[in-house]
Amino acid sequence: MPKQWHNALLTQALSPMAEPCVCLEELLAEHAAALRLRLLGGEAGLQRLVNSPRLQKPSLAFAGFTAHIDDFCMQVIGKTEMAYLATLPSERQLQVINGFFDLRVAAVVITHHMPFPSYFLDAAQRTATPLLTSALSSADFMINMTMILSKRLAPVVSQPGVFLDIFGQGVLLRAASGLGKSEVALELITRGHRLVADDTVNFRRESADALVGRCPELSQDMLEVRGIGLVNVRHLFGSSAITRSKKVTLVVRFIQYKDFEHDRISSPWKQETIHGVHIPMAELPVLPGRSLAVLVEAVTRIHIHQQQGDGDDRGDFLARIDAVAAGG
After folding, report:
1. For 112, left (φ over 0), alpha (ψ -120 to 50), or beta?
2. Of the residues 48, 152, 174, 181, which is catalytic?
3. 3-class DSSP state for residue 247?
4. Which residues contact 100 (CB under 8 A, 6 or more apart)?
5. What is the tens place of the pLDDT at every residue in 164-175?
6. Distance between CA atoms of 175 and 165, rounded to whole angstroms?
7. Has residue 63 got a pLDDT over 90?
8. How many Cα atoms within 13 Å fall on the side-chain side of residue 287?
9. Where are the alpha helices (DSSP H) in the chain?
10. Active site (annotated) includes residue 258
11. Taking the complete model, does pTM exceed 0.70, yes or no?
12. Does residue 151 have an active-site annotation?
């Protein structure tokens, strides 16, 4: 295979989907028990996709207004919708439900394990629309399913770097090519820390301030080190040297010493924004003979120290200076 083709395929494999989605069969396999869900009919449509954490209640659709029914949203029928249907003549009920299922929505969920007319099942089978029932109330089902879908469907961005679990913190190492971040990562792994991803990290924003990094499947367990090549970390160091995902809490950027702005007094902490989440960032200058692995550990310990509110070393030092100046 020509090298340019290989590189193109590798780039494509490491890139996340442009629009996250999840199929109903997968959702049921993973969450049916927790949501007390049971499939009643329309199993031929289990490959239908959901691409939004938003769930809809089809009250207006039952009244004839279907303009805003989303094909890729789950539809939840509760006591209110059933009570409204009961007010309609039998022929009108059949017309409403057939018209609703003809929209080919992602799935229909009846909550409270409520009994329902047989024409629901007939319409589900005819249109291959999954019909499910849940013992949960509409409110509880919608809250729980929205939380599940929000995590599964959160947009993913890919960023360069080496991502590790250091002292329980998700630390992303950033550097220009050739500054040795993979070598530092290898040393950190030998010191008992864990690799999440090398070279490319997929980040998913799972809440307003929670960014979770994962390794693309193609490069799982692998670390590329100049002079050695690809290293399978799991094979060399065991499964304890690998973790599948981690919340990002710190960015450490290696820079050339000539580009480092040296200031002994000002705060070393800066900030980096990834996928809309602000992450504390520290810069470490690269010089021959410096143990960057030890420095990364030190920066991580300082970050933990500050997160725990155990004092401000820089502030304490500045206070000492002020006290000496005042005394003089």
Report:
1. left
2. 181
3. strand
4. 58, 61, 62, 66, 75, 123
5. 999 999 999 999
6. 18
7. no
8. 10
9. 3-14, 24-35, 59-62, 79-86, 90-101, 118-127, 138-152, 181-190, 233-237, 292-307, 313-327
10. no
11. no
12. no
Write out the two tokens for 184.
């530092």
Catalytic pick among 174, 199, 205, 253: 199
Mapping DSSP to helix (H, G, I), strand (E, B) and coil, where does residue 124 land?
helix
* 187-189-190 Cα angle (round to 5): 65
Helices then strands, counting H and E runs in the chain, come out as: 11, 17
Give the three-state DSSP class for 136.
coil
And the tokens for 275?
């996928």
Are 73 and 106 in contact by the 8 Å Cβ rule? The answer is: yes
DSSP string, 314-325: HHHHHHHHHHHH
Place of tokens 């301030």: 209
Please provide the CATH number assigned to the domain covering 22-152.
Answer: 3.40.1390.20
- Asked if 282 contacts 166 with a C-beta cutoff of 8 angstroms, the reply is no
Q: Is the pLDDT of residue 11 over 50?
A: no
What is the model's pLDDT at position 137? Answer: 96
Are 13 and 5 in contact, with CB atoms under 8 Å apart?
A: no
Tell me the domain boundaries of the chain: 22-152, 156-319
DSSP letters for 98-121: HHHHTT--SEEEE-TT----HHHH
- Cα-based torsion angle of the residue sequence 183, 186, 187, 192 in order, rounded to the nearest 10 degrees: 160
Rounded Cα distance between 295 and 252, Å, is 10
181 is catalytic: yes
Catalytic residue of the set 3, 264, 310, 316: 264
Q: Does the structural domain 156-319 have CATH classification 3.40.50.300?
A: yes
Least confident interval from 87-91, 140-144, 254-258, 265-269 = 265-269
Q: How far apart are the first and last CA of the chain?
A: 75
Distance CA 204, CA 210 (A): 9
Neighbouring CB atoms inside 10 A of 93's CB total: 18
